[in-house]
UniProtKB/TrEMBL annotation:
<dbReference type="Pfam" id="PF00349">
    <property type="entry name" value="Hexokinase_1"/>
</dbReference>
<keyword id="KW-0007">Acetylation</keyword>
<keyword id="KW-0808">Transferase</keyword>
<dbReference type="GO" id="GO:0006096">
    <property type="term" value="P:glycolytic process"/>
</dbReference>
<keyword id="KW-0963">Cytoplasm</keyword>
<dbReference type="GO" id="GO:0005741">
    <property type="term" value="C:mitochondrial outer membrane"/>
</dbReference>
<feature type="domain" description="Hexokinase N-terminal">
    <location>
        <begin position="470"/>
        <end position="667"/>
    </location>
</feature>
<keyword id="KW-0324">Glycolysis</keyword>
<keyword id="KW-0021">Allosteric enzyme</keyword>
<dbReference type="GO" id="GO:0008865">
    <property type="term" value="F:fructokinase activity"/>
</dbReference>
<dbReference type="InterPro" id="IPR019807">
    <property type="entry name" value="Hexokinase_BS"/>
</dbReference>
<feature type="domain" description="Hexokinase C-terminal">
    <location>
        <begin position="673"/>
        <end position="739"/>
    </location>
</feature>
<keyword id="KW-0677">Repeat</keyword>
<dbReference type="InterPro" id="IPR022673">
    <property type="entry name" value="Hexokinase_C"/>
</dbReference>
<keyword id="KW-0067">ATP-binding</keyword>
<keyword id="KW-0496">Mitochondrion</keyword>
<dbReference type="GO" id="GO:0004340">
    <property type="term" value="F:glucokinase activity"/>
</dbReference>
Length: 865
């Protein structure tokens, strides 16, 4: 028994000594956590360089867009083929995906060798080989008679501009095939497959093996957003935010980025960590100076690294009594399988002895311990470096999501990770040490990236089907320039109808005279009250106007809510509510006793016989108060003031919000002769020549016409562009058949319901697209209508070119990200002879109503004199 303990002590001491010896000798390969954290930082910087447009071309880590934007959502189904080239074997798969809600699928596979004449021959032979293998597989599986979609896993750096295309940037690993670099490998595969008349496959997707691995694991775990390969070569992909991917249009959602981390350090970024053995290995490789990170990690290289180290240690007498064997001098003599065998937990040492003996090295016990430790250090460095780069990716994911802690899943595959005795455990441990803020689940891909390629194909088909459904749904909203010209011309016709006595009665665009005959001339002055009813908010304003050198307008206003039950109650309740608000305002301003002149912005179609009379033609927007239509709203307001019997006001003018807006802007810019509202509703007014306004006496000068273009099309003249959604919204509205220009938002909700969308990231992108299309159409229609107006003004003036300003207000114009730009572009396109300045009304139409009141007062006083 004592002898056994003595032997064990002797062996432990021997082991410690050998390990220390090797540790000292291979110190540069043993990377501390500080170094790994530093590598993490360097890799994060490389990722940013690769993602950004300005630095991508010089970046070593190319961050290649994969055009895979979403993970499987379980609705994929069908039969798919997949071929997988680039790992240690060529793989062909048939993948059956069942949408039985249980995410179930069936995989049939066949593996084929990749002999040197294939991996280092010419392109045509390579793709013919792939096609032959696929044909053999389809014969074996009796699939030749089927037309099947195919996903192509091609594990090399490819530049893609779409899913079903990939231009090879460079060969890596043990591949160096002539005539393929800088060509589209999908085209080459299609050509090779077409040579086989008896098979009919449709290559729908090209994916990197990391992407395939992520998708394979993503089918079982929707948290999987990273794919890692640690095999012959190494690489990783992950889901990046579109807004960070400069090389691809769009900011919405995410896209899978194939990092191609194998090239990390090709610009010297890791030279302080690369050893003489790394440099020697690289010089002897198929692609010197390339894939330097991969050459410290991949199973294609670790065996050779161990050989080069053992060779140098032997030459320096540290091993095998300095006796080198031919085998040890032979490149590639030690392979990964040997390294893994030597590192096996129990039989590692005996394997080492056996392997070294096979290499004619006659190893001592010490030698075996030392060599085993060399293997450990080499494979440990591989796992450490992988862990550092993966930790960088996980940190970026967590930062992208702005999370303090993140749970995620990493799909992983590759012979080294799967077969090396301790590799996986080491990698997990170091990753979790480097990123303690990430709960990482490592999910081994059991069915290879081929299934993932099929999943990508299935998702591509699902998205393609969805795309065509969306395109078909949204197509009616896309208005061509020709259609917009038609709308402009039809609007023009309707404008004329509204102005002409004999057609005015049936006109839909009512062209209501406002009795506002001029824009402010700066002589206006005094204190005025103004009401602003009909937009999002009801406002009561006090407006102080100074004329002359100290010409200015001061405003105080208070916003009041108009509850729905008031908007849709009785007229009396509505006007009592308005008067209540006025009372609160006068109280608040301490001017209850003052009988101030008041301008009433009433943003609904009113037929006026004078500036202070307005008969409501019909409610629009969300209003539906009873006993008002056909009534004079000024009288109703006066009535309500009388009913309250608390204060008295001199109601001088009732104006439409478009008119108020025109006046507000006209006060700053005399060229402003048009007022446009694009808000809850939409409408426009403009100064028309009296001679064209047949329903008002007189031919001199101008008068502002409130077009009420909201009713454009109520006679069906634009039914050709109205969609079923417009009809549905109209039928569900307060005034069906009226105001057919109802702007955007309601349609969006109806369309989304139609597309059966709930809330995934993909859906939000589609939601945004639907909103974009609907609001674009709204802006274009507005633009077409306005083009008709400015063109009419130009003809009125009989000029070749017209300079004019449009005063505009409304939340849609002010707040929507694109509406104002699209509107202006459309006007420019449809009224090229008009230079239109759009002037945003900062002060609202209440100021305009006060100015109109001031003008009316001034004219009234002149009339008195
Ligand atoms: C299995 C995957 C394949 C990938 C391979 C890498 O299905 O796409 O290329 O892993 O591992 P290797 O065969 O190089 O060890
Ligand atoms: C602000 C104007 C008001 C007009 C409103 C329209 O002062 O008269 O009714 O814009 O925009 P909305 O509030 O409907 O978006
Ligand atoms: C290739 C990658 C591939 C990795 C793993 C590398 O050599 O450049 O595209 O993902 O090997 O197979």
């Amino acid at each position: 028994m004592f002898a056994v303990h003595l032997l064990a002590f002797h062996f432990t001491k021997l082991k410690e000594d050998q390990i220390k010896k090797v540790d000292r000798y291979l110190y540069p390969l043993r990377l501390s956590d500080d170094v790994l954290v530093d590598v993490m930082g360097r890799f994060q910087a490389e990722m940013v360089k690769g993602l950004s447009r300005d630095t991508n071309s010089t970046a070593t880590v190319k961050m290649l867009p994969s055009f895979v934007r979403s993970l499987p959502d379980g609705s994929e189904k069908g039969d798919f083929l997949a071929v997988d080239l680039g790992g240690s074997l060529f793989r062909a798969h048939e993948v059956k995906v069942f949408d039985d809600g249980r995410q179930s699928s069936q995989l049939e596979s066949k593996f084929y060798p990749t002999p040197k004449e294939v991996t280092q021959g010419n392109g045509a032979e390579l793709f013919d080989y792939i096609a032959d293998c696929l044909l053999d597989f389809m014969e074996t599986k009796n699939l030749k008679h089927k037309k099947l979609p195919l996903g192509f896993t091609f594990s090399f750096p490819c530049k893609q501009t779409k899913l079903e295309e990939g231009v090879l940037l460079a060969w890596t690993k043990h591949f160096k095939v002539r005539g393929v670099q800088d060509t589209d490998v999908v085209t080459s595969l299609r050509k090779a497959l077409q040579k086989h008349k008896d098979i009919d496959v449709d290559v729908l997707a090209l994916v990197n093996d990391t992407v395939g691995t992520m998708m394979t694991c993503g089918y079982d775990d929707e948290r999987c957003e990273v794919g890692v390969i640690i095999g012959t070569g190494t690489n990783a992909c992950y889901m990046e935010e579109m807004r960070h991917i400069d090389l691809v249009e769009g900011d919405e959602g995410r896209m899978c980025i194939n990092t191609e981390w194998g090239a990390f350090g090709d610009d010297g970024a890791l030279d302080d960590l690369r050893t003489e053995f790394d440099r020697e290995l690289d010089l002897g490789s198929l692609n010197p100076g390339k894939q330097l990170f991969e050459k410290m990690i991949g199973s294609l290289y670790l065996g050779e690294l161990v050989r080069l180290i053992l060779l140098k240690m032997t030459k320096e007498g540290l091993l095998f009594n300095g006796k080198v064997s031919t085998a040890l001098l032979t490149k590639g003599k030690i392979e990964m399988k040997h390294v893994s065998a030597m590192e096996k937990y129990k039989e590692g040492l005996s394997n080492t002895k056996e392997i070294l003996t096979e290499l004619n090295l006659f190893p001592s016990e010490e030698d075996c311990v030392a060599v085993q430790h060399v293997c450990t250090i080499v494979s440990f460095r591989s796992a450490n470096l992988c862990a550092a780069a993966l930790a960088a990716i996980l940190t970026r994911l967590r930062e992208n999501k702005k999370l303090l802690r993140m749970r995620t899943t990493v799909g992983i595959d590759g012979g080294l990770y799967k077969t090396h005795p301790q590799y996986a455990k080491r990698l997990h441990k170091v990753v979790r040490r480097l990123v303690p803020t990430c709960d990482v689940r490592f999910l081994l891909s059991l069915s290879g990236s081929g299934k993932g390629a099929a999943m990508v194909t299935a998702v591509a088909r699902r998205l393609a089907a969805q795309r065509s459904h969306i395109d078909a749904t949204l197509a009616p909203f896309l208005l061509s320039l020709e259609t917009l010209r038609e709308v402009r011309n039809k609007m023009r016709t309707e404008l004329e109808y509204g102005l002409k006595r004999e057609t005015q009665a049936n006109a839909t665009v009512k062209m209501l005279p406002t009795y506002v005959r001029g824009t402010p001339d700066g002589t206006e002055k005094g204190k005025f009250l103004a009401l602003d009813l009909g937009g999002t908010n009801f406002r009561v304003l006090l407006v102080k106007i100074k004329s002359g050198r100290r010409r200015s307008v001061q405003m105080y206003n208070k916003i009041f809510a108009i509850p729905l039950e008031i908007m849709q109650g009785t007229g009396e309740e509505l006007f009592d509510h308005i008067v209540q608000c006025i009372a609160d305002f006068l109280e608040y301003m301490g001017i209850k006793g003052a009988r101030l002149p008041l301008g009433f912005t009433f943003s609904f179609p009113c037929r006026q016989a004078s500036i202070d009379k307005g008969t409501l033609v019909g409610w629009t927007k969300g209003f539906k108060a009873t006993d008002c239509e056909g009534e004079d709203v000024v009288d109703m307001l006066r009535e309500a003031i009388r009913r309250r019997n608390e204060f008295d006001l001199d109601i001088v003018a009732v104006v439409n919000d478009t008119v108020g807006t025109m006046m507000t802007c006209g006060y700053e810019d005399p060229n402003c002769e048009i007022g446009l509202i694009a808000g809850t509703g939409s409408n426009v007014c403009y100064m028309e020549d009296m001679k064209n306004i047949e329903i008002v006496e007189g031919n001199e000068g101008k008068m502002c016409i409130n077009t009420e273009w909201g009713a454009f099309g109520d006679n069906g003249c634009i039914d050709n562009i109205r969609t079923k959604y417009d009809k549905e919204v109209d039928e569900g509205s307060l005034n069906p058949g009226k105001q057919s220009d109802r702007l955007a938002l309601l349609q969006v909700r109806r369309i989304l319901q139609q597309l059966g969308l709930d809330s995934t990231c993909e859906d939000s992108i589609i939601v945004k697209e639907v909103c974009g299309v609907v609001s674009q159409r709204a802006a274009q229609l507005c633009g077409a209508g306005l083009a008709a107006i400015v063109e009419k003004k130009r003809e009125n003036r009989g000029v070749e070119r017209l300079q004019i300003t449009v005063g505009v207000d409304g939340t849609l114009y002010k707040l929507h990200p694109h509406f104002s730009r699209v509107l202006q572009e459309t006007v420019k396109e449809l009224a090229p002879q008009c230079d239109v300045t759009f002037m945003l009304s900062e002060d609202g139409s209440g100021k305009g109503a006060a100015l109109i009141t001031a003008v009316a007062k001034r004219l009234h006083n002149v009339g008195q004199k």
